[in-house]
Each structure stands twice: as C-alpha cells, then as structure tokens.
Amino acid sequence: YALPFENWMKLPRKVLKNDLQIFESHSVSFMRNDREVHIGAVPELSGKIHGDNFWFRLQIDFAGELDEAFGVAANKQGVRPKKYVYELIKEKISEDIARTRETIQQFRAQHADQGSRKSLNEAETRASETDGLQIRQLPAPAPRTPVEEQALQEALKAFAVTLKRADETDDEVFDRVKKSKYITVFKHDTYWPFYHVEYRFERVVLTINTAHPFFTKLYEPLTKLTRVSPNNVDDEAEGSPGPENSKLLVALQLLLLSLARTQSLVCGEDPDKQQIFDGFRREWSNSLQTHLINY
User: What's the sign of the alpha-carbon dihedral 199, 189, 259, 119?
Assistant: First the structure.
C-alpha cells in the first residue's frame, strides 16, 4: 500500500525524516502468526534502493507452518526466505508495485513542475533575454520563405503540445514555447541520467530527471525552500527567507540551462560529438548518484 504521498511530499524534510521517519528502511514487514518477526529493506521484493520506495509499504503474512520456507530462526526473530519464496511473492505483487510506482512518479513529476513554476519562468526568461550577449551564438536558420516559415510554425506548434503542463491548453503552451529560447521539462525515469538536452526548432530543451538523487537531494528541497516566507520559517530553513532561496533556485536553473546551451552549441548536428557528450552525461550522472546514495 502507498503512504499519503500527495500530502506528505509537501511537508518539510525534517518532519518527514524525524517525525514520520519516512526515510527509515521499513519498507517490508514480515508477520508470522500476526507477530512481526522482521522489518526492513528487502530489495528482492521492493527493488533496488530508490526514492520512490520510501512511499510504499509491503506486509507479508505467513503461518508458522512455513517457517522453513521463510528461513525463520529458532528464536522466531528474523527471516531468510528461500529464492522460490521471493519469486512467488514477487509474481503476485509486481503489478501492484508497478502501478503504485507509476502513480508516485506521475505525481512527483507534476509536483516538480508546479513547485518551481515561478522560478523556472524567471530563469528561462532571463536566459532568453541575455542570449544575445553570449560570445558565441546558437545555430541560426537560413532565411526562410513565407511558406517555410508557416511550416516551421506548424511543426513548432505540434512540438509544443508534447511539452504541455497539466494546467495548460494547446494555445497557452504554444505561446510559452514560441516566446522562449529555453524550455525546461521534468521526466521521471529510473534509467535516465539526471539531465538530458535537445536542440529542437531553435530552442534549447532541458529535461530534468525527477528519479535521480540530484532532484530528490538538491533540486526538490531547494524548490520547497522557495515557498518559505520570512514570517513562516521552519527549523531547517531558519535564516533563509523564501525570496533569497528563490534566487538560489534560479541560479541553479541558469547553471543547468547554460550547460544545456553549451552542449547544444558544441555538438550541433555532429553525431560523434553528441556521442561523446552522451557518454560524459551518463558517467557524470552515475558518479553523482553514487556520491549521493544514502546521503
């Protein structure tokens, strides 16, 4: 079953960690004859360590007749289930876990977009306004005929629909994309690096992966701090009013947008350079994930 993540994700990290103990390794509980004999992280059932695992729980109930299969010790404490037991349980619950994960992922991505909307708009606007001051300019298109221009606008409109936020209409997202050279989107994918870059229709598109520890350990907490006001400061953010934190978040977003711009500028349409940058991006992402794990 899932914890009430829709409400709890909005709480300060201190409350989640100390009061609710969300981040403790209590994801799987084994109950023998209605008495708990083991609780902890069980990767064989809940999967590898991941931020989404904190938001659901598994309870395995079994009778004493199954002690041998579950590897219950003589003192009736602890379990060491046999491989086939894990396989049978996983077969029964895999669809439920996948469905719960998907719901959590969808909410996290949507919440990330809404939580940083104001600062994102500011970062994208600032990056667009200062783009002309850059020493090297992004690839500029050749002069287009009216027919070519119309075709480009139609293609851009179709592309903009793929970037639509939950509360936007087709016209609203097209207007937003048309005005900006920089677009930030969020995606939740366990197998993606923490960021991805595309240069499409003369626009730098940066995708931030909400499944990566970069997001859960840095981006998301900083987003929450931007909502702290000087008169409503929690213990973790004391001395850090919302407006100041907003500047920090915008600076972080500009750092990522400048990275995306540089990659777009250097790679262009050269597949060899794109391959080099993709390899660099994956290695950096894996290294950062290792450094941040359990931090």
Answer: positive
